Amino acid sequence: MATLKELSYRKDPLTGGHRACAGCGFPQIVRAILMASKDPVVVTCATGCLEVTSTIFPYSAWTVPFLHNAFENAAATASGMEAALTAFKKKGKIKGNVNVVAFGGDGGTYDIGLQALSGAMERGHNILYVCYNNEAYMNTGVQRSGATPRAANTTTEPAGKVKSGKMRPRKDLTGIMAAHNLPYVAQASVGYYMDLIRKAEKAFATPGPKFMNVLQPCRLGWAYKPELTFEIARLAVQTCTWPIYEVENGKWKLSMKPKDKKPITEFLKLQDRFRHLFRPGNEKLLEDLQAETDKNWETLLERCGAQGGMV
Amino acid sequence: MQIVAKTGNEAMAEAMRQINPDVVAAYPITPATEVVMIFAQYVADGLVDTEYIPVESEHSAMSACVGASAAGGRVMTGTSSQGLALMYEILPIASALRLPIIMAEVNRALSGPINIHCDHSDTMAARDFGWIQIFSENAQEAYDNMLQAVRIAENTKVNLPAMVTTDGFIISHCMENIKILEDQEVKDFIGEKKVPVSVLDTDHPVTIGALDLQDYYFEHKRQIVDAMGKVAPVILEVAEEFAKKTGRKYGLIEEYKLADAEFAIVALGSTCGTAKVVIDELRAKGIKAGMLKIRVFRPFPAEIIAEKLSPISAIAVMDRSDSYNTQGGPVFTEIRSALYDKGKKPKIVNYIYGLGGRDIMQEDLLSVFNDLKNVGNQPQINYLGVRE
Fold first, then answer.
1. Euclidean distance between the first and final Cα of chain A, in Å?
2. Is the pTM higher than 0.95?
3. ipTM for the complex shown
4. Which domains does chain B have, with CATH numbers?
5. Which SS3 state, helix, strand or coil, does residue B1 take?
6. Which chain A residue's Cα is nearest to B60?
7. What are the counts of helices (DSSP H) followed by strands (DSSP E) for chain B?
8. Chain A residue with minimal CA distance to B73?
9. pLDDT number for residue B241
């Protein structure tokens, strides 16, 4: 695995001066993943924060080839790029390996882009699809998505006098992608940066369709101080609300088992999207959320069939 | 040159085999499914070098086409009706990114109510997305138009996507004798695609599809209109070269006994074949009937249409779709607009006909010509053969 020092000599795919918010997690995700590739990369991206903040014409923060098509079709667009790449390689017009990477937010991945993603993965294109998952539609003002966790406050499923934010738990998209029997599926967090790089390297070394679901705290939508992004991204893992693991050819493997599993309130209390949970009367809901997290964690441990280890 | 029996779908698939594109992304839909099936078999039998993407929807078909075309590939797809409608979101992205994707589009009624037969509602609803639209009267034209579309769309002055249409079942499923070129002749005619930029060129990274706000969006849209304005002469150049190779002549429109006509109809697609028979019968009786067939609907060849129609005393515009604006079908309103500046204007009426695949028979068109003799005694917008 490349060290941070080695990576620092590689070309930065995203220049400074892009318009992402202070404290935004996705520039780090983009850098970690693309710099993990030894070969040249080409990128496509769903409509969303990343595309909007990196490309306002006539400016572009991308130093690698970049194509934006629409919201729900990054995976389909990537499959077209990959097909053309294969055609050109066969005809000798392109020599050497080029990695095709698609980025989508959770809205463009869990919700409106799920069909295109499922189709592209099932067809087996040699692409890496990365979901930068900030658990809501942040680009348009914090609307709920299928990735929004239960009880989070969003603008389209807000907490109010009779409701406590989102009613249903998020879907297990990483599990859904694992059920596509892909050669490589990983769940990661921007807070565990070397783990993220290691997973990207592994993905690039694996031929065929790959999927990575990377948790990216959003200081705007999660409502916390910008300097806490990495801390919150780590707490998500340490409280087991967002365990990090990989599924390699059907084999589940935990990337990190916290020594002392922290209560989820450690993660929740730093974010205003969960503020309502700490008001009197919501104790039962907090208990339920902890129980749900524990149950999911146990299920994951069973799937991984091992104790896992520290990264 | 060979003479072979082909349905419209087979003719389009044959053209695609000879074009041998880098990438085809397509999804099956009646009545265009055969185009995809036949092509998939070509791939399976190793008759083409194409990377074929059997996508999970038409939305992904067009999205994958955009990805492959932005990568510099020669890219094709085929669809119809609901499939085209599912692509609508991506069609203007393809034209705005100036990607010369070629589509075999089989005209079929849009739902609802659900229907699988021919009308032009699907293609007409896609008329304002910056795509070149070429209509075919029969399988021969479908084949010829596919080959010419590649040259037109990929012309560096143009770089716009193009759809070549046939009429669902009427052309797509009916077998005719058609003349096809040798593979090498097609290869020579279409040539290699010129690629100005490619998203796969890692030595020269480009950003394609950037967010484009108040500062530049308008200029980029203006450039699409400018490119569309350059399409007509390119179509005529390509047609001339094609005629030298095949003897088959094409223009933006086709005139049928129009020069001295007193009464004329305007139509697109398969109906034109029926109209020619009717016009011959009327001419035999000494009635000066004629037709203007529109081959290219986008860009709209307003100037030549106005010039040809202006001297005629009465015109019936045949629309195989309605726009629901209560002012007539899309062809009618464009033709009326084209004639506005002409000093001499014909009397003009509109017939919405054949929706959902309702047959248009010779006697239907005869009744239209009969009406034209007494034009003025009828509504301006007529629904031909509908039970009111």
1. 13
2. yes
3. 0.97
4. 2-245 (3.40.50.970), 253-383 (3.40.50.920)
5. coil
6. A76
7. 14, 16
8. A84
9. 98
